[in-house]
Amino acid sequence: MSLKGRDVISIKDFSRDELDLIFKVADEMEQYTNKTLPILSDKIVAMLFFEPSTRTRLSFETSVLRLGGKCIGFSEPSISSIAKGETLADTIRMVDGYADLIVIRHPLDGAARYAAEIAESPIINGGDGSTHHPTQAMLDLYTIRKKFGGIDGLHIAIMGDLAHARASASFAYGLSKYNVKLTLISPPQLRMRREVVDYLKEKLPNVNEIERLSDVIKDVDVIYITRVQKERFANLEEYEKIKDLYRLDCEAVKNAKESMVILHPLPRVTELSPELDNTPHALYFQQARNGIPVRMALISLIMGVK
Ligand code: NCD
After folding, report:
1. What is the best residue among 109, 133, 232 to mutate for testing ligand 1's pocket, by most ligand atoms within 8 Å of CB?
2. Whole-structure pTM value
3. Strand partners, 261
4. Over the stretch 71-117, which tens digit does the pLDDT of each residue have?
5. Which residues are registered as beta bridge partners of 166?
6. Who lines ligand 1 at CB under 6 A?
7. How far are the Cα atoms of 161, 163, 230, 242 from residue 235, in angstroms, in the given order?
8. Are residues 112 and 161 part of one domain?
9. Could you tell me if 248 and 274 are in contact, meaning their C-beta atoms sit under 8 angstroms apart?
10. φ and ψ at 245, to 5 degrees?
11. Residue nearest to atom 11 of ligand 1 (CA)
């Protein structure tokens, strides 16, 4: 099995065996996360970030540097020729000639797939629109696998802005490859889109949509929570009405299993109380750190150096 030259657009495009390969290589990469493994030394990776990012961009850049490669790119489209009216297609055509691999983040659904149609170099989707963020899903699955020794058999709750958070949808798509019980928890206004739920129900025998965490708190192994995605609301008054509708704190998880863990792709706003940070449930900072070995593994597999 080889991932050489593969575009990474959606987690749906990856088989369970391919994910296992990425996780196996990520396990090997753990020992290099604070030193260099110079296997990418003649490669240049472009980071095209058309939307804000901290973790995704910095962990991609760190991963390239730890592998001995070099990065070019922008984290703010206003300082590139986009500000002069250059189209996405032209930007991709240019960068394709400069870099061996392109990581793109974009506000529009489908932007990464469109870029992949234009570019000859492989494209990695660093999050586009409200649906796909495949490398986030990979590191989320990797985090669970490391914590529980596997993913099958777990009861996983995804909670929050399921309508707009691409991290939630991608994580759910990733879980659909495993034998899990899945509970989707959100206020009615923020339910997961029908097409995503229909797909999940086709793949998984046990998918439930509920409104209150308290109904399942005793049974869940993982709670995956996201912030309300303010930037996806056309109407900010709508956002204001919704933004405080859910919150996870010590009180909300007091009846949980001791082994229950909380994941969050971060950044958090008010939905995840810092009082949970020092409890054994908090796995989100470890989750963010796991972005490095997982992205090191993925980049080296795609570049054919692993
Ligand atoms: C997420 C994103 O950009 O989709 N952040 C991330 O990549 N870790 C989540 C978010 O912005 O809420």
Report:
1. 133
2. 0.97
3. 222
4. 999 998 887 888 788 899 999 999 999 999 999 999 999 999 999 99
5. none
6. 55-56, 127, 133, 136, 165-167, 226-227, 229, 265-266
7. 15, 15, 9, 11
8. no
9. no
10. -75, -20
11. 267
CA distance 100 to 123: 9
Would residue 146 count as lying in a domain? yes
Tell me how long the chain is: 306
Question: What distance in angstroms lies between residue 97's CA and the mean position of ligand 1's atoms?
Answer: 29
HSE-CB at 287 with a 13 A cutoff on CA atoms is: 25
Which residues, at least 6 apart from 6, have a Cβ–Cβ distance to it below 8 Å? Answer: 122, 301, 302
Q: Where are the alpha helices (DSSP H) in 176-270?
A: 194-203, 236-242
For the CA atoms of 232, 51, 102, 118, the dihedral, rounded to the nearest 10 degrees, stands at 60
Rounded distance from Cα 288 to ligand 1 centre (Å): 11
CATH number at 67 reads 3.40.50.1370
Q: What is the mean pLDDT of residues 201-222?
A: 98
Q: At what angle do helices 166-175 and 134-148 cross, to 10 degrees?
A: 50
CA–CA separation, 66 and 35 (whole Å): 6
| Same domain? 97 vs 167 | no
Residues 6+ apart with CB under 8 A from 8: 14, 122, 123, 124, 125, 134, 135, 298, 302
Tell me: do 24 and 65 sit in the same domain. Answer: yes
56 lies in some domain: yes
Q: What is the pLDDT of residues 32-78, one digit of tens each?
A: 999 999 999 989 999 999 999 999 999 999 999 999 999 999 998 88
